[in-house]
Amino acid sequence: MSSWRKRVIPVLLLNGEGLVKTVRFKNAKYVGDAVNSVKIFNDKEVDEIAIIDITPLSTRTEPNFELLKDITSECFSPLSYGGKIKSINQIRKILSIGVEKVIINSAAIEDPEFLHKACLEFGSSTIVGSIDLKKDIFGRTRVYTSNGMKNTGRTPMEVIKQFEECGVGEILLNSIDRDGTRMGFDLDMINLLSKSVTIPVIACGGANDVDDFILALKNGASAVAAGSKFVFNGRHNAVLITYLSEDEKNKLLKYENR
């Protein structure tokens, strides 16, 4: 495992049985087999892995427990899972498989009572509240659910405060507008929201290099997450499962030890 304090988390998107990567939550590109990808990340000694199931509800309405079993049996890193979680029993089953934390998005926003019950039942350290945000047609930043298709009309500040009140242990803050673009994090939003709550905020959406990670940490993120950075390589986005290079690790260590 790494010797730095801040976590750098690969986020893998599951669509059916395989992994994909999106751009602004659209145009999903196949990037490989989930179990094999996890094996590669094992060799890279990643801090943590997050898997989010974006399979359409028309295809699957609940988590793929069998595939999760296969993934956890091969995963040596702490594993978080999100997607299609809407009941206490589902969470219990996911944790029994070996997943350490569950990431809840749509159900957490639409049913705060369920989120609160989950935090009480399994402990705050087990529950991650996920916020997907983007600008609406009027240029206002709003929280979206259902894989970015449904505008809740709510501001990120409203939702993050609600999550804190419900007792979540962490917030996964994901910019839909920056997803897959590698144009850098939404630093203003990270700064604003991380200062407004006492719980850790994981920045996601837009990372291109370790400099972006450091900027997010400087602006209040407690951890950073990325997808494209760890599954694509080069100008033509050739699929390559990777993690931080030695130079990047040293740069991150230098930042933390400053």
Overview of the molecule:
By secondary structure, the chain is an alpha/beta fold. It has a single domain (7-256), classed as Aldolase class I (TIM Barrel, Alpha-Beta Barrel), CATH 3.20.20. The protein has 10 helices and 14 strands. The chain has helices spanning 34-44, 65-74, 88-97, 106-110, 112-122, 156-166, 187-196, 210-218, 228-231, 246-256; strands at 7-15, 18-23, 26-33, 49-53, 79-82, 101-104, 127-135, 141-145, 150-151, 170-175, 201-204, 223-226, 232-233, 238-239. The protein has an 8-stranded parallel barrel with strand order 1-4-5-6-7-10-11-12, surrounded by 6 helices. Helix 8 links the parallel strand 11 and strand 12. Helix 8 runs parallel beside helix 10 (246-256). The longest helix has 11 residues, at 34-44. The radius of gyration is 17 Å and the shape is globular.
Short description:
This protein is an alpha/beta fold. The chain is 36% helix and 27% strand.
Task: Provide the fold topology.
Elements: E1 7-15, E2 18-23, E3 26-33, H1 34-44, E4 49-53, H2 65-74, E5 79-82, H3 88-97, E6 101-104, H4 106-110, H5 112-122, E7 127-135, E8 141-145, E9 150-151, H6 156-166, E10 170-175, H7 187-196, E11 201-204, H8 210-218, E12 223-226, H9 228-231, E13 232-233, E14 238-239, H10 246-256
Parallel strand pairs: 1-4, 1-12, 4-5, 5-6, 6-7, 7-10, 10-11, 11-12
Antiparallel strand pairs: 1-2, 2-3, 7-8, 8-9, 13-14
Helix pairs in contact: 1-2, 5-6, 8-10
